[in-house]
Amino acid sequence: MSRLGIPTLGWLTAILLSLVTLFVFGTLRNYGPDSTVRKFHEAAIADDAQAAAILATPNFDSASTQELWTFLKGLMANGSTEYEIAQNQRQANKCAIVVRYRSPFGDQRSLIWVVIRQQGRWLIDTKETTLAARYLLRRRT
């Protein structure tokens, strides 16, 4: 028995459960459609086209992917635009994710990112995402 009246086995069990919990949450942070959108944003901030290319479909050289990539890099270029994954609506192999952007000047906008599962991987459908962005941005002006 330890000095505090709690058996050593209790302390070891608590530490083990804490480590398992942290491991599970850390693993799940990098899985799923939300993670794909977050990684694409991180690639845009870092201007890492190779990291973004593996997250998009049809391919990185397509017109829709290039349009979305250019738009996002411009939006995130100054480094002070914040983004937040606000909500998602998920079906079996498709997910619509709402991302809110907040500029340092107080401007806010939301975009819908469409993510699909292909061969067990979540990928951003740049055609549908670009169409949604065009529609939302056109209505705003």
Produce the secondary structure layout.
Blueprint: H1 8-29, H2 33-46, H3 49-53, E1 56-57, H4 63-76, E2 82-90, E3 94-102, E4 108-118, E5 121-125, H5 126-140
Parallel strand pairs: 1-5
Antiparallel strand pairs: 2-3, 3-4, 4-5
Helix pairs in contact: 4-5
Description:
This protein is of the alpha+beta class and 141 residues long. The protein is 50% helix and 26% strand. The chain has a 5-stranded mixed beta sheet. A hairpin with a 3-residue loop joins strand 2 and strand 3. Helix 4 crosses helix 5. The mean pLDDT is 86.
Task: Provide tags for this entry.
5-stranded mixed β-sheet; 5 strands; 5 helices; 141 residues; alpha+beta
Concise account of the structure shown:
This protein is of the alpha+beta class and 141 residues long. The protein has helices at residues 8-29, 33-46, 49-53, 63-76, 126-140, and strands at 56-57, 82-90, 94-102, 108-118, 121-125.
